[in-house]
């Protein structure tokens, strides 16, 4: 079947950029991205491309090229489902906050709502694609809902997980390491796989398009994230040992990364990984393993999260200890709030937890982030429910200028590896700070020798 109409439910960090790239690379396909969130859709349609809701380098140009040509953003979910041959489900799958599996299992309520809506609306055969990250065997549940609520039409369910990383989403989508498509082994399943392969073949080489059964595809996504996060927790565990022994984690990381079997990527010690997915997906893996009675497997993966939590609280404890065991009424400046550079996403950012710890110690937190709004910063803290919104607003001041943010501070904590921090006039910052002036580099970003020569007391993670 030649595909000419695609719909994507969910206009978030995955749905928006992924569909923008499909639309740009396949001008013959009409791509409609729909969402319940009218404000988000309005922002995607904003004439001013700097106002689209997701900041990703290069995304504005792609949206500008394809929007209203063959890329559309709309709140009319029914119409888009009705017209499409392929429907991507790209809605959020957060960790459950209630009931069975609370704090571990993936909350599939948004997925189920999509399946029921597709079942109700579809009047001809459709291919339904799981783009969201889902527990292994979710396709079974989607199929059951569709078959039991549908109008007698045929549905094929494919799993096509997304591997893009935020901050590099456009490059990752344009040049993916691989495209993974899982489908049924039946002739209809294979035909559906072929249709989706044809879409990606417009810009991805065929040897990079991998097809598997549905369960392998679903599980590969959780496994890929678990392996990536595991590398960070592994090097972070070593960072603590480095601090005790005089080894330098950057040197250790380089030394082991030159072994081609280990490889050099994802070995940067840090204040801990953040982002919406690593923790959520590992917790999900742990939950699934437990539900099959595989307790050793569950414990093994859970340790990756335990190590990450330890790294975040170790970072704030170190600030407290170094500042003579009190940060009460001291100004501590956070450079960076996003969970990594080149994104305005703050979900699960280490900065949130470090700030929470320090506010508990009565510190005054000043924040500068080039892309995160002050509203978002306060909302993130309020979401933790550690204290009242009024107390958070009193403890945190957000700045639009990094030099103002650092003025009169006792210490600076680097929480995001934004490139611009490296180019600051650090002498000027030093001159305006309380002495001794401390820098706690949670990203191993800055040049220790240069800062120490100015007079800073500089500490990076793992050195
Ligand atoms: P997101 O929260 O940014 O976007 C999800 C969107 O879905 C929201 O705008 C929400 O309003 C919308 N939505 C929810 N239910 C809906 C419904 N019934 N009808 C219409 N719209 C609905 O989430 P995201 O970061 O794009 O993640 C989506 C999925 O992709 C998750 O499963 C995530 O694990 C996975 N993933 C995310 C990333 C990433 O970098 N963020 C990368 C790979 C995979
Ligand atoms: C991650 C994966 O890299 C993507 O492949 C995946 O699609 C995505 O999760 C997802 O499923 O959501 P993302 O979370 O956007 O992407 O960003 P990463 O580059 O993986 O960084 C995650 C966190 O790890 C960040 O806080 C980053 O600063 C931290 N990190 C990364 C380190 O602390 N050290 C490293 O060496 C690398």
Set down the secondary structure blueprint:
Blueprint: E1 5-9, H1 15-25, E2 30-34, H2 38-44, H3 59-66, E3 71-74, H4 77-83, E4 86-89, H5 109-121, E5 126-130, H6 138-149, E6 155-159, H7 169-174, E7 179-182, H8 187-200, E8 209-212, H9 214-245, H10 249-257, H11 278-291, H12 295-322, E9 331-335, H13 350-360, E10 364-368, H14 374-384, H15 389-395, E11 396-398, H16 402-406, E12 411-414, H17 426-431, E13 438-441, H18 448-454, E14 457-460
Parallel strand pairs: 1-2, 1-4, 2-3, 4-5, 5-6, 7-8, 9-10, 9-12, 10-11, 12-13, 13-14
Q: Characterize the main sheet.
A: 6 strands, parallel
Q: Provide the gyration radius in Å.
A: 24 Å
Q: What is the 3D form? A: globular
Distance between the termini: 58 Å
Measured as a percent range, the helix fraction is: 40-55%
Secondary-structure content class: alpha/beta
Bound molecules: nicotinamide-adenine-dinucleotide, uridine-5'-diphosphate-glucuronic acid
User: What share of residues are in beta strands?
Assistant: 5-15%
* Overall pLDDT confidence: 97
**DSSP, total strands:** 14
Tally of contiguous helical segments = 18
């Amino acid at each position: 079947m030649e595909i000419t109409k695609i719909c994507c439910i969910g206009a978030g960090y995955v749905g928006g950029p992924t569909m923008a790239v499909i639309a740009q690379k396949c001008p013959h396909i009409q791509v409609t991205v729909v969402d319940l969130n009218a404000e988000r859709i309005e922002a995607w349609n904003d004439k001013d491309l700097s106002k689209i809701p997701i900041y990703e380098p290069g995304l504005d140009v792609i949206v500008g090229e394809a929007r209203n040509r063959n890329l559309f953003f709309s709140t009319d979910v029914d119409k888009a489902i009705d017209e499409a041959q392929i429907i991507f489900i790209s809605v959020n799958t957060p960790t459950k906050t209630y009931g069975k599996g609370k704090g571990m299992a993936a909350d599939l309520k948004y997925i189920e709502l999509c399946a029921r809506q597709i079942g109700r609306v579809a009047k001809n055969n459709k291919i339904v694609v799981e783009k969201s990250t889902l527990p292994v065997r979710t396709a079974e549940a989607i199929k059951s809902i569709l078959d039991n609520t549908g109008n007698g039409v045929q549905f094929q369910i494919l799993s096509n997980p997304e591997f893009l990383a935020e901050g590099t989403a456009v490059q990752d989508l344009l040049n993916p390491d691989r495209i993974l498509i899982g489908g049924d082994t039946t002739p209809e399943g294979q035909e559906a796989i072929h249709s989706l392969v044809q879409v990606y073949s417009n810009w991805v080489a065929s040897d990079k398009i991998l097809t598997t059964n549905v369960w392998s595809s679903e599980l590969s996504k959780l496994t890929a994230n678990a392996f990536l996060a595991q590398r960070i927790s592994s090097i972070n565990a070593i960072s603590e040992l480095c601090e005790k022994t005089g080894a330098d984690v950057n040197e250790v990381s380089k030394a082991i990364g030159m072994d081609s079997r280990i490889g050099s990527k994802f070995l940067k010690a840090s204040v801990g990984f953040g982002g919406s997915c690593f923790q959520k997906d590992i917790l999900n893996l742990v939950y699934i393993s437990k539900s099959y009675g595989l307790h050793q497997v569950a414990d093994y993966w859970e340790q990756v999260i335990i190590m990450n939590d330890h790294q975040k609280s170790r970072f704030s404890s170190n600030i407290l200890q170094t500042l003579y065991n009190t940060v009460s009424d001291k100004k501590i400046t956070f450079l960076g709030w996003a969970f990594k550079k080149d994104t305005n996403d703050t979900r699960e950012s280490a900065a949130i937890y470090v700030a929470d710890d320090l506010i508990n110690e009565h510190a005054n937190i000043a924040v500068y982030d080039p892309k995160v709004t002050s509203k978002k910063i306060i909302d993130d803290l309020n979401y933790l429910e550690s204290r009242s919104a009024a107390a958070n607003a009193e403890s945190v001041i957000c700045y639009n200028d990094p030099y103002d943010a650092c003025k009169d501070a006792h210490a600076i904590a680097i929480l995001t590896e934004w490139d611009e921090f490296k180019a600051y006039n650090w002498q000027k910052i030093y001159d305006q700070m309380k002495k001794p002036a401390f820098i706690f580099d949670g990203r191993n970003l800055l040049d220790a020798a240069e800062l120490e020569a100015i007079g800073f007391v500089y500490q990076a993670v793992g050195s």
